[in-house]
Amino acid sequence: MEVIVKSIQTYSDEELVHLFITTQRNRYFEALYERYADKVYRKCLSLVKEPAKAEDFTHDIFLKLILKLGTFKENARFSTWLYSITYNYCMDQLRVVQKRGEVYGEEEIMTPAEADLDSVFEEDEIELRRLQQAMAQLNTDEKTLLMMKYQDDMSIREIAEVLGVTESAVKMRLLRSRAKLRKRYFETMLFLGLLLSKLLELIKYLIN
After folding, report:
1. A GO term (biological process) for this protein (predicted)?
2. What is the pLDDT, as a whole number, of residue 197?
């Protein structure tokens, strides 16, 4: 009878977790690490803005993951569970830093006044810059909430479980965060609109 050996790449995340727990073979955990290390790193980087610190956080998160795998419920999505560990760890570390009065490196966002005049007329660049500027004005909790919902496509229930709050609370926080982002976005759009108007007036003056 022919025995078909399944490639490790074909296992689902949940199967890899089960195999690692039951066999304690490192190759199953290594497969999970290869799938998610870069994603976890990018999520950490989006919150702390420092590559070196994001790497440290990623390392710490996977160490925590080894210890917590035994608590994973196989009827849940592994990716959602891992992202919840990631967000909670990053938020805990950020709160510690805030209590100490320290600040992780903030991403440099170009202000409208500093914008390259050649790119002011590039619509896609303007839209991206507006969104970056608007997001930069949200606090860490608001940015994290929006990322979980719209970047990671997590459900209201999953977000509620991660944050340890009710689904109603998540809906209310999302509503407020979206409203704040929209307000900041249109404020930036208005500022850039005024800047563009002034530039056009200047160009018209120089031509004449």
Report:
1. DNA-templated transcription initiation
2. 57
Tokens of 112: 């409208």
Phi and psi at residue 6, to the nearest 5°: -80, 130
Query: Residue 52 belongs to what domain range?
Result: 7-107
DSSP 109: -
Alpha helices by DSSP H, listed for the chain, are 13-23, 26-48, 51-68, 78-100, 123-136, 140-146, 156-163, 167-207
Residue 135 sits in the same domain as residue 77: no
Beta carbons of 196 and 120 less than 8 angstroms apart: yes
Instruction: Specify the DSSP class assigned to residue 152.
Output: S
User: Pick the residue with more confidence: 140 or 70?
Assistant: 70
Query: Which residue has 């459900």 as its token pair?
Result: 155
What is the spatial distance between Cα 79 and Cα 73, in angstroms, rounded to a whole number?
12
Alpha helices in 101-149 (DSSP H): 123-136, 140-146
Q: pTM, whole model, 2 decimals?
A: 0.62
